[in-house]
Automatic annotation (TrEMBL):
Signal peptide: none annotated. It comes from Shinella kummerowiae. CDD domains: Sigma70_r4. This is Sigma-70 family RNA polymerase sigma factor. Gene3D superfamilies: 1.10.1740.10, Winged helix-like DNA-binding domain superfamily/Winged helix DNA-binding domain. Coiled coil: none annotated. PANTHER family: RNA POLYMERASE ECF-TYPE SIGMA FACTO, RNA POLYMERASE SIGMA FACTOR SIGZ. The lineage of its organism: Bacteria, Pseudomonadati, Pseudomonadota, Alphaproteobacteria, Hyphomicrobiales.
Length: 183
């Protein structure tokens, strides 16, 4: 059903789902599932949970397709909103939260250890080592995560559990201090 990828294909597929057409649902799944899993995975941070979210979302899409109103937004937006809301609900419901936190804590500690190990591998007599050592530990970790670990400001903020603006300003000020120290 979704051979072409015109924007109104999803509208037509949702209308067909509302009438009980399972092939239309399959067409939506074939076209969008990969991207939907990626969206869910960014929220729940685990592939297995993301796949569960998408499966749950497709059940909701099937049972609620009749509620989609094209005058209120795009079919794609409606579908992605369902996935996003399902993922956020999964995080909010207490059943999964502990597991997600444990896995994240393990990953974060491994990643921070890798970043710290990279700093410790620097020649202790180098100016860069001295200048990094003079920085506040959190700012040093932020800079190392960005420039050694390759993390985005958003990822750094999440891992250090600080607001995005704070992460950006710490990194900016830390880099300014490094430049000054190295000069």
């Amino acid at each position: 059903m979704l051979t072409g990828h015109a924007p109104d294909d999803l509208d037509k597929a949702l209308a067909a789902c509302a009438k009980g057409d399972r092939t239309a649902l399959r067409g939506i799944f074939d076209r969008e599932a990969g991207r939907l899993v990626a969206v869910a995975e960014r929220i729940v941070r685990r592939r297995d949970l993301a796949e569960e979210v998408v499966q749950d979302a497709f059940i909701r899409i099937w049972t609620h397709a009749h509620q989609y109103d094209p005058t209120r937004g795009s079919a794609r937006g409606w579908i992605y909103a369902i996935v996003r809301n399902r993922a956020l609900n999964l995080l909010r419901d207490g059943k999964r939260e502990h597991t997600v936190e444990e896995v994240d804590a393990l990953r974060e500690s491994e990643q921070v250890n890798e970043v710290i190990a990279a700093w410790r591998k620097l020649d202790r007599n180098s100016l860069l080592h001295d200048c990094l050592g003079a920085l506040d530990e959190t700012k040093r970790h932020g800079i190392l995560m960005a420039y050694v670990g390759g993390y985005s400001h958003g990822e750094i903020a999440g891992r250090l559990r600080i607001p995005l603006g704070t992460a950006k300003s710490w990194i900016r000020r830390g880099l300014a201090s490094l430049r000054e120290c190295m000069a």
